[in-house]
Design brief:
The chain is mainly alpha-helical. It has two domains: 136 residues, no CATH class; 116 residues, no CATH class. Helices cover 44% and strands 7% of the residues. The chain is built from ten helices and four strands. It has a two-stranded antiparallel ribbon with strand order 1-2. A two-stranded antiparallel ribbon has the order 3-4. A hairpin with a 6-residue loop joins β3 and β4. The radius of gyration is 22 Å and the shape is elongated.
């Protein structure tokens, strides 16, 4: 969940179709295909404005397979390994290494190799909860990292639901967001986060009391709040504004009862023996 610069220019994206059109198999579809690319960009990839195209019998499957034939290429490999990413631009997980089709190629195979439709992501996002979901009720859609510049700010947090010993973690759009961004973020969170998020967040939560005790000898409400604030600043720098850890810490800092629980757990915890 972050804003990314486009991986290639408009001309470079369309040049791939021009190369394909030199093959008689694709020549009849060049004009319509380029028009589909232009409609995608003109509408910022919006699934409410971009309709799937029918290029004729058998073309759908051949377009779908174009990505499979090219995913090992140097260019797509570089996109998959994009430098400078602190977390997954789609879900905020601490890993990357794959590419996700913003508009799924099962529905929109005409965009299977369009670089503006390919988002660096974690494997979970490429094959997990999102699946072939395209959108919900307007304006509920997925965040588009290339077009939604507002996604570079903090846009969500984790609500911690008591009892804190067996806490539940609910992703929420930040209340400060305006519409329609708030609806878009809510839909996005509902459809990209799965069991990996639940397990990772539970682990981070359970480890916080020991971390706090190691770093804070005072263990007052004020000192613990300060420690959590510093942890958030580190998370923002190391993992990004919309990483899982940053969202969890934002949620904790907005909940005085959660802070007090962590403080009491830190006081009661036994530090591991020194090695």
């Amino acid at each position: 969940m972050q804003h990314l610069t486009f991986p290639v220019t408009v001309a470079d994206d369309e040049a791939e179709l021009t190369k394909l059109a030199k093959n008689p198999e694709w020549t009849p579809h060049q004009a319509a295909w380029i028009a589909a690319y232009q409609a995608y960009r003109a509408n910022s990839g919006s699934p409410f404005a971009v309709a799937p195209q029918n290029f004729g019998p058998g073309v759908h499957d051949r377009q779908y397979k174009l990505y499979d034939n090219r995913k090992g290429s140097g260019e797509l490999r570089r996109m998959r390994r994009k430098k400078g990413l602190k977390s997954c631009p789609v879900c905020g997980s601490p890993v990357i290494g794959d590419l996700d089709h913003y508009l799924p190629r099962t529905v929109f195979p005409e965009f299977s190799i369009m670089r503006a439709n390919l988002i660096p992501a974690c494997t979970h996002c490429n094959s997990g909860v999102k699946g072939s979901t395209v959108h919900g009720e307007n304006p509920r859609r997925f965040i588009h990292p290339y077009f939604d510049r507002w996604a570079e700010q903090a846009i969500w947090q984790v609500e911690i639901i008591s009892p804190f010993k067996a806490a539940r973690f609910i992703p929420r759009a930040l209340p400060s967001l305006e519409e329609p961004q708030k609806e878009i973020v809510a839909f996005h969170l509902e459809n990209v986060l799965g069991i990996q998020f639940d397990l990772s967040t539970a682990n981070e939560w359970s480890s916080l009391p020991t971390q706090i005790k190691l770093r804070d000898p005072k263990l007052t409400t004020t000192s613990v709040t300060h420690q959590l604030t510093m942890e958030l600043r580190v998370a923002l720098d190391a993992r990004g504004a919309n990483s899982w850890l940053a969202a969890l810490l934002r949620g904790i800092l907005s909940n005085p009862h959660a802070i007090e629980y962590l403080r009491n757990e830190a006081i009661a915890s036994v530090l591991p023996p020194e090695v």
